[in-house]
Design brief:
Elements lengths: L11 E2 L11 E2 L4 E2 L11 E2 L4 E2 L12 E2 L4 E2 L12 E2 L4 E2 L11 E2 L4 E2 L12 E2 L4 E2 L12 E2 L4 E2 L11 E2 L8
Antiparallel strand pairs: 1-2, 3-4, 5-6, 7-8, 9-10, 11-12, 13-14, 15-16
């Protein structure tokens, strides 16, 4: 007699014999398995830095990278919102990170936004303001030139404010 038993497909498994219908169990979201005909839960976690919201995944390549500006040190996460955001004032430009490698915006720049994915998105302290601290997370942390001083260029990382000339003032 010809064997007409049907394998559970990759991404699914079943632990009991002699079944008469498709009772294969999906690998849960965040896990995958690439081979068919599995008789136990051998599903494998998507790697840290990746996730899958889809059940019955049949290939590691189908796990999705946490995008640039986000990371995860946990394997097997099942939703994009479980990827951790770089905090405000920091960014990272590459996806699929497995630890907090976020980089502070340079002194003279800030970001109030989390999950920033590029250094270019850090915002310059405006002219007349400066900050010597890297990684600031709000515009109000940029320091004003003191009364009687000014500066016309943005993104300054030190107090380069200059005195108003005699006969002029700046508030």
């Amino acid at each position: 007699a010809e064997n007409k038993c049907i394998d559970c497909v990759a991404g699914k498994y079943f632990t009991q014999a002699a079944q008469t219908s498709d009772v294969c169990i999906d690998c849960v979201a965040g896990k995958y398995f690439e081979q068919a005909a599995q008789s136990s839960d051998v599903c494998i976690n998507c790697d840290a830095g990746k996730y899958s919201a889809t059940a019955a995944l049949d290939a590691a390549a189908k796990c999705i990278d946490c995008v640039a500006g986000k990371w995860s040190s946990t394997a097997g996460i099942d939703a994009e919102n479980k990827c951790i955001h770089c905090v405000a004032g920091k960014y990272f430009e590459q996806a699929a990170q497995t630890s907090d490698v976020c980089i502070a915006c340079v002194a003279g720049k800030y970001s109030a936004t989390t999950a920033l994915d590029a250094a270019a998105k850090c915002i310059a302290c405006v002219s007349g303001k400066w900050s010597s601290t890297a990684g600031i997370d709000a515009e109000n942390k940029c320091i004003d030139c003191v009364a009687g001083k000014y500066f016309t260029q943005a993104a300054q990382s030190s107090d380069v404010c200059i005195d108003c000339v005699a006969g002029k003032y700046f508030e």
